Amino acid sequence: MSNPSWDIQTAIHALLSSASPELAAGGVHAPALQNVEFPHVEIGESQTVTNDVQCSDGGDEFITLHVWSRPGAGGSYAEAKSILAAMKTLIHGVALAGGTLSTATAWVQSIRCFRDADGVSVHGTLDVRVQYFS
Q1: Residue 134 to residue 62: CA distance in whole angstroms
Q2: Which helix (H) or strand (E) segment is 15 a member of?
Q3: Residue-wise pLDDT tens digits, 2-61
């Protein structure tokens, strides 16, 4: 049974993991475990919108990637923003491969950075759209 959503998540995880620990000392997780080192990346929510064509299953996969950082004194967003920028460079316009995917291209749709509700952490999100056919 094909599962392009899982194949896309696996490909993104591999791509980001290949850049760690330089990308994020705490690694790339799906989902992140408790007490994981900061900064770290978490592959989060996803949504699939089907877009089949004759003789080929296709769609758009929307995935939210999360960055978690613990800035020092002053509460700077610099670390989280640097990781988000590096992730965009790694992902935007990249062809993903694996599993059931015959073609899949990732596009960064938006980047956001804000103070987390805990009042200590900086939380960044990077929203990715992957157009695929399997």
Answers
A1: 16
A2: helix 4-17
A3: 689 999 999 999 999 999 889 999 999 998 888 899 999 999 999 999 988 777 788 999
In the CATH scheme, what architecture does the domain 4-133 have?
2-Layer Sandwich (3.30)
| Block residue for tokens 């316009």 | 93
Kindly state the tokens that stand for 18.
């290949």
The single-letter DSSP state of residue 3 is -
- Closest-CA residue to 80 (of 103, 1, 88): 88
SS3 annotation, 42-111: EEEEEEEEECCECCECEEEEEEEEEEEECCCCCCCCHHHHHHHHHHHHHHCCEECCECCECEEEEEEEEE
